[in-house]
TrEMBL record:
One Pfam family matching this protein: CarbopepD_reg_2
Topology of this chain in the membrane: Multi-pass membrane protein
Superkingdom of source: Bacteria
Protein localization: Cell outer membrane
Protein name according to UniProt: SusC/RagA family TonB-linked outer membrane protein
GO CC, one annotated term: cell outer membrane
Residues annotated as domain TonB-dependent receptor-like beta-barrel: 434-1007
PROSITE patterns assigned: TONB_DEPENDENT_REC_3 (PS52016)
Amino acid sequence: MEKLVSRSLMLILIGMATAQNIQAGERMSMPTSFKKQTTGLSHVSQQTISVKGNVRDQSGEPMAGVNVIVEGTTIGTMTDSNGNFTLNVPSTSIKIKFSYIGYEDQIVLIKNNRNLNITLNENSEMLDEVQIIGYGTQKKITVTGAVSSVGTKDILKSPVPNVAQALTGKVPGLSTIQYSGQPGADDPAIFVRGIGSLDAKRAAPLVMVDGVERSFFRLDPNEIENITVLKDASATAVFGVRGANGVILVTTKRGEEGKAQISVSTSASLQKPIRLYEYANSYDYAVAFNEKLTNDGASPVFGEKILDAFKNHTDPLLYPDMDWMELILKPTSFQSQHNLSISGGTDRVRYFTSVGILTQNGLFRSFDAGYNSNFTYNRYNYRANLDIDVTRSTLLKINLGGRLEDTKEPNTKSNLFTFLTRVTPFGGAGLYDGKWIHTSPDNIGWDKGALENADPFECFFGKGYNQRIYNEINLDLSLQQKLDFLTKGLSLNIKGSYNSGYTHRKNRYKEIPYYTAHRDPETNELFFRKFREESQLYFEESTDRGRNWYLEGSLNYDRKFGKHQVGALILYNQWRDQYPDPAQFDYVSIPRGYVGLVGRATYNFDNRYMVDFNVGYNGSENFAPGHRYGIFPAFSAGWILSEEKFMKNQSFINYLKIRGSYGIVGNDLMNTKSRFFYLPDAYNPYGTSYNFGVDVSGNRDGATELQMGNPLVSWEKAGKQNYGLDFSILDEHLSGSFDYFIEKRHDILTTRNTAPNFIAITMPVVNIGKVDNKGFELVLKWNHSIGDFKYWINGNLSYAKNKIVYKDEIPHKYPWLYETGQSVGQPFGFIFDGFVTEADLESGKLPDHKLDLKPGDAKYKDLNGDNIIDDNDQCPIGNPIYPQLTAGITAGFEYKGFDFSMLWAGSGKVSRFISAGLRVPFGGGNYGLLQYMIDDHWTPETAETAKTPRFSGAANANNYTRNSTLWLKDASYIRLKNVQIGYTFKGEWMKKIHLKNMRIYASGENLLTFDHLKIADPEATDDKQFQYPLQMIFNIGLNLNF
């Protein structure tokens, strides 16, 4: 009945408009379809024929406003209110296309038939394609916010153990920075539209899996249907206090009615470090160390005998020359992924089940220490999603998912790669005849303490391992009840979720003896001295747990009145974390939680004009009563211009929509573990100890003040604007979007830096910071088919630049010393002004560097002109440490069963300091030396080509440890993130074994990297350059569908 009324109203309107247009001598132009086709009347020759006809829908109702066009021309017209049309065409051997929004196009060949009766079938896929949004879905063509998605097909192309790594370069506005490739600990940092606050720690987006806050890093990618990124205030306002940094929505797969569909996937991979540091051999090290001593006026420590032994390897046990990287690390490690999923159902019950296994081995070799201390990571994922139609109006959804993780790591995992940069190539000889050989200082005259810390086996061999077994279970129950008996389009949704995690840790350790090798001075016979006895096995275990729950209740309304579509949402939610993570929060014995209300109202007229209003009302435990709740509203609107009459008479644009939004979202977290910002002064009851009276032999426990409270502190707020354009042209071969955004964040939660030190207490949290952030996102997609050959090229480019508008800073003498006005993460340092020359010294014009400068030392610019190089000469240098520019390009083709795709991803306008451990020769003492330092350092012979200063321990503070443009590098990079080639088999033989589809493929990840940094990986900041190296992956796989 509603459809009949709607169609009748449309016919009346079109009839009135048609009558007016006929009187004016014009043809009527109406919205055609989402796939826009051009209409219009061109001048025709007199050799034309007249074609008449009528167009109806599947129910026999006449269709007004149907686009009737001669294919390949601009000759066209529209049906009237009765579905009739008349069209003059050049000849009888032409094709006429009929199109209307929400219906499948129909093409008819005109021969002798000049009276046509056409029936158009609905195309629900075109009109009803939905987009996941916060707490619901929306028709994609009516979305007015800044939203981007990536589907399961694109996610599964990357053979990575961590789902988040598969997003790099695929989602505009989303940047990922991966610092580590360690098995089970390779989570990347994720930012949506850059950094909007004062630091990166408070810039992480909210992640929701099936509508509940959960991590998605460890999900099996085969479980995932879609990952959606919400970027502007219109899209994130419903999350209120947690929406300031963007939101990532992960939707898992569900079953569909039909026979059981069985999918099996298996893959095997070899992993290889993208980049490892290259260290000097023993001879080059010794020569360089002697050079350093000579430069500092000291005597060389390595004599000719030792140098000859290092160079010629005459006695490798006493004078080792070890490549520790080669000895301790394997060239490759193994990884495998396997998954079995089954889906299907009846008209009443639908199901999706999945079981996945991931195994990942580490790079470290195994030695005979009685156990394997290598990195290993095994993960077992499971999921069962059920949809049960209890009645025709009642839907029950049950989601059960979880995982079991088994992780083994060396006890010294955090120090392994740091230690590898500190060791000398002659610090030990590895394992000889089952003995762990240290180098004796008696042999080479080296510092005993330095030698004891110069063997990487000291950090790895015999130090034991720890095992972490983690079990997590997630349960969601959702009941959706249609309330059409009250009013059509109304529904009730009740949801509850329970998440539980349990950790069991085991630690094993024992001391292993080591030996030093010696030769008898008279007989030259080799003998060993033993140090330390083998200890008993040390064992320790502990447990930890986590538990949280989530409740949600909502009323939804969605109804169409003719051309008017209206929707509304009212939602209440509550979340409670029973055992806060002590690594992230204080007061772990006190549960933390959120409570909030959500509202949404939407209006859509004829799929042309869209208006959305969203609001979140949230409460946070961090603020005092009276400041605890905040309202976060957002408004957005959209206009599909391609459905307007004035856009009809052209053939270039198929689809064009403009949209805009403005809203306010919030944040209630800081970059520390602090909670309850409003409480009176917090104390640590065991913070210190005191002596009382005359007995000073024992102390008494005493309390210390931790932080002052602030009862007036409230939300951090972000005002966000977004202006977007979506388009499709050239018969939809080229499509894309452009977004420009502005964010102004104020009342940022921080502490004052201008309080005097004698206060001796951490200052309270206040709302004083301000940061502006603006940028753009561009997406272009080209898709085309030539016969059986289908190809595509897609690209996205994102730019986000922030600026600190206000930060509480101590007064500085000079304007270049302030962080205010700079980007978040902006490096500061000295401006390198070349190497000191003899002419510089003779001129007497060098500023005072607080050092007796010599040729080959670094010199810096004196910015304030006081002829002294000190902290007042530091200024902003280079680009921020967080990339302002990110991009991704995908290309591929499909042809008769073959398929190929590749993804290039990169970042730009980003800088990295070389870590002090990678730029200070000998580690500032008796530690390791990288080969590039030897190749690039200054000597009188290399003065014209040198890239680093001379070797000098006395000049380390000036030459190497000072942050300057000498050590700040452009960290822009382009990486072949993924490449894949596959073949899908077809044939009658497959039916005999009930096989629907079989595909074999080979793929790779991180295969090529082009960058300027060279020394370290361009993604690693200076404090992350000793992490487990990032991996390139070589993978083969098989997919079967039954």
